[in-house]
Amino acid sequence: MEKPKIAIIGHGSMGKEVEALALAQGYQVTDIFEIDNKIDSNKIYNFDVAIDFSLPDAVYENVITLCKLKKNFVLGATGWHSEKDRIFELVKNAGVGMVYSSNFSVGMQIFNKVVKTAAQMLNKFDGYDIMLHEIHHKRKKDSPSGTAITLANIILEEYKKKTRILTETEHGQIEPTSLHVTSTRGGEIAGLHTVYIDSIADTIELTHRAKNRSGFALGALTAATWIHKKTGIYEFLDVIEKM
Ligand SMILES: NC(=O)c1ccc[n+]([C@@H]2O[C@H](COP(=O)([O-])OP(=O)(O)OC[C@H]3O[C@@H](n4cnc5c(N)ncnc54)[C@H](O)[C@@H]3O)[C@@H](O)[C@H]2O)c1
């Protein structure tokens, strides 16, 4: 596949990881945008696809600008669920291409499917409960993680006995229909998600552990190459399945 010229929006931990990998793989990184050097709809840029690993607060403005510029993009930043409808509308109206995911690691896409299958099977059996815990480094701004929300929504879709997500912990006894999703922040953990399935007889612990950020960067770069010269809105899983 033809390598697109890349712009990076947000030059923090992920942006730097994407930059290093892109250069190592022979991509041209033509622009790097930061909070003091934001992407600007009044300027002309040479890049083909932008990869946004900025922060939740910045995403909506960035999407407006990218749509005005008619540029395709990969949305790696998380925490923009409340803006989802407006963002999709902007992308459709602009006729650009977008790939998004709360987790660009291929391993997490496999993990999503494992959790989906487990949650489907639970419907057949009484006596099992299911809950979810995630841990990330101390700098992470959103909580629970976008990945945990994606996993929780998969469980809610598949397992009929859980009807809502409960995230806070100061509530006393939990209702059986609530899916408890909890978070811990500390240290340098790149991302750990565990789904617990528990009964009186046994416990199943399904864990995905990101060892570092390289898998996210590789997935985002793969998505950027794939979305080059395409239009429409795609999840990363669509990209993997269509490749
Ligand atoms: N989808 C995934 O696979 C995945 C993986 C890891 C992290 N993330 C998400 O990516 C985002 C970034 O994570 P990080 O660990 O690199 O955070 P970080 O804090 O290290 O970096 C974010 C950078 O974005 C910059 N920024 C803020 N507003 C901006 C703007 N308007 N324009 C340009 N830059 C701006 C900040 O100054 C900062 O340097 C977070 O939302 C995180 O949850 C997603």
In short:
With 243 residues, the chain is of the alpha/beta class. The chain is 36% helix and 24% strand.
How would you describe this protein?
By secondary structure, the chain is an alpha/beta fold. Helices cover 36% and strands 24% of the residues. It is built from 7 helices and 11 strands. The longest helix has 17 residues, at 106-122. It starts with 5 loop residues before the first strand and ends with a helix. The model has no long low-confidence stretch (mean pLDDT 96). Bound molecules: nicotinamide-adenine-dinucleotide. Nicotinamide-adenine-dinucleotide binds next to helix 1 and helix 2.
State the helical fraction.
Answer: 25-40%
Order of helices and strands: EHEEHEHEHEHEEEEHEH
- Low-confidence region ranges: none
Rough shape?
A: elongated
Query: Main β-sheet: number of strands, strand sense, barrel status?
Result: 6 strands, parallel
The number of helical elements comes to: 7
pLDDT average, as an integer? Answer: 96
What class do helices, strands and sheet pairing give?
alpha/beta
